[in-house]
Amino acid sequence: MKQPNTLARARAYEAEHHTPSQARPVFHAVPPVGWCNDPNGWSVYQGRYHLFYQYHPYATVWGPMHWGHATTTDFLHWEDLPCALAPDTPMDEAGCYSGGAIQWKDQQLLLYTGVQPEGEDTIQQQCLALGDGRDYRKAPSPVILPEEQPAGASRKDFRDPYLFEEGGVLYALMGGRGFNGHGRLLLYANDHPEDPAHRWRFVQVMAENDGSLGSMWECPNLFTLDGRTVLVISPQFTRQAPDNRYHCGNDTAALIGSWQGPGTPFVRQADSPLDYGLDFYAPQTLLTPDGRRVMIGWMQNWDHCFPEEDAAWYGQMSLPRELFWQGDALCQRPVRELDAARRLRVQYTGQPVGESLLTLDGVRGRVLDCELQLHPEEARRFGIRFGCGEGRWAELRLDLEDGILRLDRRHAGGYHDLLELREVPLTPVGDLFKLRMVLDRYSAEFFLQDGQQVASMTLYNLPQEADGISFFAKGSCHIDLQLYDLAL
Ligand code: FRU
């Protein structure tokens, strides 16, 4: 049995080992020390955005899961709060896994997956905690047991509740695994508004995996945007990648359709990858008071966890992104708070790019925001290198003949180059290729074609001095470019 002081120990440890801001990204959320994965409880409470996350303070690798905690008012400046949950009761002794948060009366309600040892194995059940935005009290027993699933379900894969409220009722949407081994999403309701610590009720199966998108579906999220309902899932172990839209491994997807509310079927009409890069998983969304649907994800991939030995922290969150439609495409752009921080440094108009690497005065850096429009003309290929220096770089290149985009981190200082390249089909938008690149010390995020596609990658092995940016092409073309510093 874990000691009751597990939480106090984590809080003392993180206070003592708190990483200074110079050794963190400038505007991306990371743990104060140790490891983080999934964002949890991404929500609004008492005028602040709250980010909890899967957290192991004592090492830069996954371990017994705690919930780390940070808040922000602008999505760019993060304030660390003390560790919120620790695995310190029999029902969550093997870890406090992912879940959600919501305001309930004047308190903050957390619903998370408690992992409990059972013989040689573990079971997963949903546990509740209430608090004031900083300190939380756990309900004495789980509110959703693995038995409360349709027949034949796994007791071990039953996790990651997403909390939402509709018509005054609290609901939890979670991932489970049916008898055929495939993932499915299950909806539960709380029938006791005066005391949510009562057992919750099974409502319906919201969606089932037919085997074409991975196996287990982790970390569901649900929202309606301009009349269309979106179910967000993180499928584990995808083995098919038709047309390279998805990749094999752990991926993310938006299932787009319609839903009339609890008790009615979700009608799936389309699906769309949420990120075409190398590092993105387990995203959650929230609705801001001014009506924006903002998504944040873990900017990492389970297949790419290689912390350096001397790292103080490992694992970062993506930039929060606003979701919007363009026709039927679910698009993303950085939160507008980032736009407000931009200060134009240099711009180039009609700049020719040729076969040899082109560098431009004032175009360099590892913390910046840059927009580029490519006029392809005769070009068969176009590329941009960033983080260049000391024989290292990362690269995004576009094969204009076959419409393939390549993200290439093979020369960025890692030692697993077979995992460092991804190829995806590019969505055409008129004759232009449009790109927005956001760099923040240890990462690059690309918003392509007005946000129709996004591609994220971490850059842990490029020294910060490697800040060169250059361009190359095959065949003549020219670019327009605006590069912004960020006043943060
Ligand atoms: C997804 C995930 C979740 C689980 C958590 C454990 O990345 O596997 O399903 O709750 O990580 O840390």
Provide a short characterization of the protein structure:
By secondary structure, the chain is mainly beta. Helix content is 3%, strand content 50%. The protein has helices spanning 6-17, 336-340, and strands at residues 34-45, 48-56, 66-72, 79-85, 96-104, 107-118, 121-131, 136-138, 158-166, 169-177, 183-189, 201-208, 217-225, 228-235, 253-258, 267-273, 281-287, 293-298, 313-314, 321-326, 329-334, 342-353, 367-375, 381-389, 392-399, 404-408, 421-425, 433-440, 443-448, 453-458, 468-474, 477-486.
Write up what this structure looks like.
This protein has 488 residues and is mainly β. It contains two helices and 32 strands. It has helices at 6-17, 336-340; strands at residues 34-45, 48-56, 66-72, 79-85, 96-104, 107-118, 121-131, 136-138, 158-166, 169-177, 183-189, 201-208, 217-225, 228-235, 253-258, 267-273, 281-287, 293-298, 313-314, 321-326, 329-334, 342-353, 367-375, 381-389, 392-399, 404-408, 421-425, 433-440, 443-448, 453-458, 468-474, 477-486. The protein has a six-stranded antiparallel β-sheet. A five-stranded mixed β-sheet has the order 4-3-2-1-19. Strand 9 and strand 10 (169-177) form a beta hairpin. The model has no long low-confidence stretch (mean pLDDT 96).
